[in-house]
Design a protein that fits this description.
By secondary structure, this protein is α+β, with helices and mostly antiparallel strands. The chain has helices at 17-27, 57-65, 103-113, 150-164, and strands at residues 2-12, 31-40, 43-53, 73-79, 88-98, 117-127, 134-145, 166-171.
Length: 172
């Protein structure tokens, strides 16, 4: 039987951290499945899923914990139940606007009220093409039950777009 482990990792950014993590997983019978990693504010941060035979799970967890002595803090969560996406619909949301506090809070509040799950969220600040002002950009991959009325959700999101002064593209 295989066990999935969801790992979060953070440490001072330096060459070799991904290799050290990958080697630890491989040396302990793990298989690297999915990941997202970035350099943020001088730190290396990431999240990944690894799969390991149940009989080797504790050994891998202990080896990952030992990486803290080398500057990489790893948090491990078990995920033994498979995902059930049979009654769900996927869609995306793209947003761009002048940066201001509260954009993610307000959009995520509307999504939560409609029971929409955020599967992936990417945000960044970029310089505006015609000015030096910072623009906030976000891309979200979303998941909801098939009985969600996407037109109603889109109307709810668009109703706050003007208040936030952002442009939103909703892809069904």
């Amino acid at each position: 039987m295989m066990t999935s482990l969801v790992l979060t990792v953070i440490g001072p950014d330096k060459p070799g951290l991904v290799e050290m993590l990958a080697q630890t997983i491989a040396n302990n019978s793990g298989n690297w499945l999915e990941s997202g990693m970035s350099r943020l504010a001088g730190k290396f941060a990431g999240i990944l899923i690894t799969e390991v035979p149940e009989k080797h799970a504790e050994q891998l967890i202990n080896a990952l914990s030992a990486l803290e002595s080398q500057g990489l803090k790893v948090t491990v969560e078990r995920s033994d139940s498979p995902e059930n996406n049979s009654l769900t619909q996927h869609f995306t949301l793209e947003l761009v606007g002048h940066d201001k506090p509260g954009i993610v809070r307000d959009i995520s509040s509307v999504l939560a009220k409609h029971h929409v799950n955020v599967e992936r969220l990417t945000t960044e600040l970029v310089s505006g093409s015609m000015s030096a002002e910072l623009l906030f950009k976000a891309e979200a991959e979303l998941l909801a039950s098939t009985d969600l009325d996407l037109d109603e959700l889109q109307t709810s999101i668009e109703s706050i777009a003007n208040d936030l002064m952002v442009d939103i593209v909703f892809n069904k």
